[in-house]
Amino acid sequence: MHATVDSALDPRTDALAGEWLSLKQTAERLGIKPNRIKQLISERRLLSVRRAGEPMVPAAFIKDGQVIKGLSGTLTLLSDAGFDEVETVRWLFTADDTLPGTPVEALSENRGTEVRRRAQALAI
Q1: Which of 96, 109, 49, 108 has the alpha carbon at shortest distance from 122?
Q2: Which residues have CB under 8 Å from 124's CB, separation 6+?
Q3: 52: burial class by Cβ within 10 Å (0-12, 13-18, 19+)?
Q4: Is residue 44 left, alpha or beta, with left meaning phi > 0 and alpha meaning psi from -120 to 50?
Q5: Which of 46, 52, 71, 72 could pair covalently with 40 via S-S, beta carbons 3.0-4.6 A apart?
Q6: Among 16, 20, 19, 10, residue whose Cα is nearest residue 95
Q7: Measured at the alpha carbon of residue 61, what is the angle toward residues 20 and 52, in degrees to the nearest 5?
């Protein structure tokens, strides 16, 4: 998984994620230096996609000054299943009636086990 995607983010996926943060804004919300954000992205602990030529992070990935619990493992599972960054954002922000809600909401509510179970099933 690369830090950013060269292809444009389609409007539907862009709208699914709602609020987006620049890398600088993400660093501010996490209370760390902007260079550390790039490292988190390269380590698959965080995900960014290009919006209008700039790498951006969905704001929903940050809660209470931290990356939401379980995001990193879920990103790895989706990458292993062959998802690129845009497909990953689409999957994380698309409602799943069996959760209920979206996978990112479930992660934010500390219901990551079910999210990872569904992500693992994608790789099979």
Answers
A1: 96
A2: none
A3: exposed
A4: left
A5: 46
A6: 16
A7: 25
Length of the chain: 124
What DSSP letter does each residue of 4-58 carry, written as one string?
Answer: S-SSPPPHHHHHHH--EEEHHHHHHHHTS-HHHHHHHHHTTSS--EEETTEEEEE
- Contacts of residue 78, Cβ cutoff 8 Å, sequence gap at least 6: 87, 88, 91, 92, 119, 122
